[in-house]
Amino acid sequence: MSENSRKDSTPPPDLSKEREEMLRSFRRNAALTERFMDEYARMRSRLLEVEGENEGLRARLGSPEGEPRGHAGAPPSRAKLATEDVDARFAELEEEFAHLASLFVAGNQLHAALTTRSVVRRIRDVLGQLIGAQAYALYFLSSDGTELAPITSEGVPTERLQRMPIQSSRFGEVLKAHKACIEEEHAVNEVNWEAPPALIPLVAEERAVGLIAIYGLLAQKERFTRTDFELFRLLGEHTGPALIGASLFEQSGHRLPGAEVIYSAAL
Amino acid sequence: MPEYSCLVVEDSPMMRQLLVFALGRLKNLRVTEADDGVDGLRKLAAARYDIILTDINMPIMDGLKLVKRVRSDPNHKDTPIVIITTEGAGEDRQRALQLGANAYITKPIQAPQVIATVKELLRIE
Known about the structure:
The complex is a heterodimer. Chain A has helices spanning about 5-10, 15-60, 80-110, 115-130, 170-175, 225-250, 260-265; strands at about 135-140, 145-155, 165, 180, 200-205, 205-215. Chain A is of the alpha+beta class. Chain A has a six-stranded antiparallel beta sheet, with helices on both faces. In chain A, strand 1 (about 135-140) and strand 2 (about 145-155) form a beta hairpin. Chain A is flat. Residues about 1-5 of chain A have low confidence and may be disordered. Chain B is α/β, with parallel strands linked by helices. Chain B is globular, with a radius of gyration of 13 Å. The termini of chain B are close together. Helix content of chain B is about 40%, strand content about 20%. In chain B, strand 4, helix 4 (about 90-100) and strand 5 (about 105) form a beta-alpha-beta unit. Classes of the chains: A alpha+beta, B alpha/beta.
């Protein structure tokens, strides 16, 4: 067998495990996406029901057979209260829709790229555009596992973007604990270099591989929202595998694995 | 019910997908995507659109140049344009409005704001 044909069908042994990990990560993401889509379909259907109820109530309010319209000083009618209730539920559904859309898009996009540059760009989009981070940095673990090295950042002065030893540092503690450290009580729209309001460890196959530090949000956003907390979880679980997968793909010279490789790795 | 067409010009795939998701709530709106200003112009030359949503900061051709080009084209001089900017980009926003944009949306984008702006410009009930 020639060298070329061997390359086409059999991956180097050291890549097999990484490919398997990458595929497992893709499958997990597909399942997550499916879950979001189901939830989205359920919410859409509920939204249509609520819109139907709202239409009915509005029709009753406008029709002569409907309940009499309230006048100044009179207590609100049952129909008015019901309409307010429907409006409140509609607003809740809108919020839920936006929440699910952000999660779906972030998860979907993180694994939709196979070059490191594209993956990094998508991570930046999640941090800047969805979470509204004003200053942040993404660090990855050095190959000897002793330091965190900055990969990309926004709004962080160069002198603060240093390689950081894992030993005896707050970043290192978060990394070892595999547990995000997030400010939940105080406003986070001012940059805090000493105690970043969000430190998210990046984990791949139960190994810590990096960390995202958010130093402050945009002025108009005071606190982290429910969606942000879900996005932190998503970033923590998916950033590492997405970066590793893209990096391996580039290292392999953008060679796509054949069906044989996928089949043997899936067994 | 009349059908409307919308062109979304945005270089970030993530933001584009979010916009398409939000606009998908308007059942009678058909959405076409473009990666940047040049791609946007190419699509505008090939079809008629009822509304354009464009980011400002894009490679190759930014949103400001796109607004200028669209407004100087007799076929699209009256097409409503919505620009998407960051909260701090007041100057860009002003410049775009002076060049002929009709409205703006600030990032991070909120689906209800996107829908309300589009419905208002297209006069959809």
